[in-house]
Amino acid sequence: MDVKQFYDAIGGNYQRALETMMNDEFVKRMLLKFLNSSSYSDLLEAFRNKDIKAIFNVTHMLKGVAGNLSLTPLQLEAAAVCEIARNAFEYTAELDIKTENLISVYELINSNLKQLC
Fold first, then answer.
1. The domain spanning residue 84 has which CATH number?
2. Each residue of 68-85: pLDDT tens digit?
3. How many domains does the chain have?
4. What range defines the domain where residue 33 resides?
5. What does the radius of gyration of the chain's CA atoms come to, in whole angstroms?
């Protein structure tokens, strides 16, 4: 799998990634750093603990990183969860469902990243 195929498989924006990072090798290097980051495990831990503040913090960071890497589906899901968590006073079914959706998108991206890297 090459970088363009990766972006096509996940519904990301390859052209934007290329404009931002200049070439496939740099995009791939940044994606590998993302794959090796703790953001996925941090998200899972926050979700398991139903920790609204931690979910907010992880998703806020994640929407920015996903945006910079043009991982559009991940950015959109992270933004949705982030906004719910920002305004939540207690853990709700909506936050639970949206976080599960985010985790599913993240898993899809991770599995495709492993094929790329």
1. 1.20.120
2. 999 999 999 999 999 999
3. 1
4. 3-116
5. 14
